Kinesin light chain
Amino acid sequence: MQSLAASLREQYQKLGELTDLEAGLKMYQGALDLTPEGSPDRAGRLLNLGKSLRDRYRKLGALKDLEGALERKQDAVDLMQEGHPDRACYLQSISVSFIVIGEGGICKI
């Protein structure tokens, strides 16, 4: 399910078809729903869902998508231990969402 979601997201990024993005979001959510609490895969699934929500925000401009993206990404970071080698990349993904906020004029820094 995760691989199909990633393929749909990649297709959306190439073609810009909202139906691909929506289908990918459903797959990412489904994969997350099937991932038990405490699974080492949960953080990655949260991050991928957050990235796709950010993509939909960029396409449609619905603030709830950007808020959802930030929430999922923060949840992913919260699951990672301080010294985890991927933690910096996850934190960077949160910062990218904040940059999107600045681009959209929601927050002027």
